[in-house]
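Journal club prep, notes for RB
We'll compare a predicted complex against what the paper describes. Inputs for the zinc ion case:
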Amino acid sequence: MFFHCDLHVHIGRSSSGRPVKITAARDLTFENIAIECAERKGIELVGIVDCASPPVIEDIERLLDAGEMVELDGGGLRFRDQVTVLLGAEFETRETGGGMSHHVSYFPDLARLKHFSQTIGKHVTNLELSSQACKLPANLLFRMCQDCSGTFVPAHCFTPHKSVYGASADRAADMFGDAWERIPAIELGLSADSHLADRIAELHSRTFLSNSDAHSLPKIGREYNIIEMQAGTYEEFIKALWREDGRRVIANFGLDPRLGKYHRTFCEDCNWIARGDPPLDTCEQCGSAKVTLGVLDRIVQIADHDEPQPPEHRGHYQYQVPLQFVPGIGAVALAKLINRFGSEMAVLHQADEDALGQTVGAKKAHLIVLAREGNLPLQAGGGGRYGKAVPSNPGAMKLPGL
Ligand SMILES: [Zn+2]
Ligand SMILES: [Zn+2]
């Protein structure tokens, strides 16, 4: 069986109104995430990464007591026979050299999650808030996660400021030591894809996850994975990460990495996003060295191979341009399209051009089809600014690999 899985979704508020991720949407509650996945996104397995927050734990307990969710034998919480929620927690670690990175731990059940919450609570200032700094090196957080029967996945591995390769180390094996062999997977992040990550030798043996890191309901599923497994449970998911008994990630659906916020080097002095051959660690425009290094630039800097060397187990990487990136598709057009075709995925990948045209006009329909075929010209993002489609600029590059 194939499952659509997004394993990195944040919480904005608890149902009691307490802030969890302050920058995230207010309606992004534990329960609303499950409802959104069931009713609009077609996501069958969702990892929520702010579950160690005590007001969120209260929400989970309330939903279980009311029978709206049930704990599964294989781990995870079932909602309406449609969605499995995995209980996760993202924390920020700090190496002795100062490098910071984010990591998500997933737990089989509420008891283990609560145990972890109590343990990590001694190391953070405000446990109620999302992605808190725990001031421990990553391999100690890993051990804490293991002690609570969790599974540990380094998050958005290449992003500048807060990630393994982007801010902490050239090699994950150096950073984690013995623990590295017990980490089954890494998360690519929006500004990277499998082709880029497969230029790093120590990643060939890891499973790649592409997740949304959503801070609002509409962004759930902007990146997701198709996982082959027997059931939507925690245990099956972990087997898939380790590729046991035929379970595995068969495909990653993700943004073209140029649409991500950190794809190219960004100049903090003149706001220029690099366009020349990577790696660039100074500004092409003004010469400043005060830059935020791009994910592409960083990967080229530390790559073992000039070309990707995908292992046999690597799933297909399918690019998708979320409708919010297609010029002219605003909230009204988006609502019309989803009403007519059932889901954003159906619009992106299946609906034919004539039918799209009847709904939003021929011009927008054509842009959607160009995006689907990888022919929508894109300009890379950087320094926290998303990349964008530039249909009026035929000189911009095409999407590769389609
Ligand atoms: Zn996150
Ligand atoms: Zn500059």
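Talking point for the session: The first helix runs from residue 30 to 41.
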